From TrEMBL:
Organism: Sesamum angustifolium
One Gene Ontology cellular component: cytoplasm
Role summary: Potential calcium sensor.
InterPro entries according to UniProt: EF-hand-dom_pair, EF_Hand_1_Ca_BS, EF_hand_dom, EF_hand_pair_protein_CML-like
The name this protein goes by in its record: Calcium-binding protein CML35
Length: 100
């Protein structure tokens, strides 16, 4: 699966490739589907995606080279309020941008 996500083959997941992971859930037809996609990343169900949770997803899909620092960079690229997490609003915005 890593090779499917790592489009440029550099062994790391870029922000654009991270967006592609979110869009792999297909454009959500309903808010519930978007919430389910968000919950896939938000493993502790606290309403935010942390860099650690994101790293766990990458490990699950077989990307052993992705580091915590990579995940923190991806979070910063999506996070709009600067709290260091991806909230549902940030995630929704990212998914909406992917649909364009």
């Amino acid at each position: 699966m890593l090779t499917e996500v790592d489009r440029d083959g550099d062994g790391c997941i870029s922000l654009e490739e991270f967006y592609a992971i979110g869009s792999a859930f297909a454009p959500p037809a309903r808010d519930g589907e978007l919430r389910d996609a968000f919950d896939f990343f938000d493993s502790d169900r606290d309403g935010k995606i942390t860099a650690e949770e994101l790293l766990n997803v990458f490990k699950t899909i077989g990307d052993a080279r992705c580091t915590l620092e990579d995940c923190q960079r991806m979070i910063r690229g999506v996070n709009r309020n600067g709290d260091g997490f991806v909230c549902f609003e940030d995630f929704s915005r990212m998914m909406e941008q992917q649909q364009r």
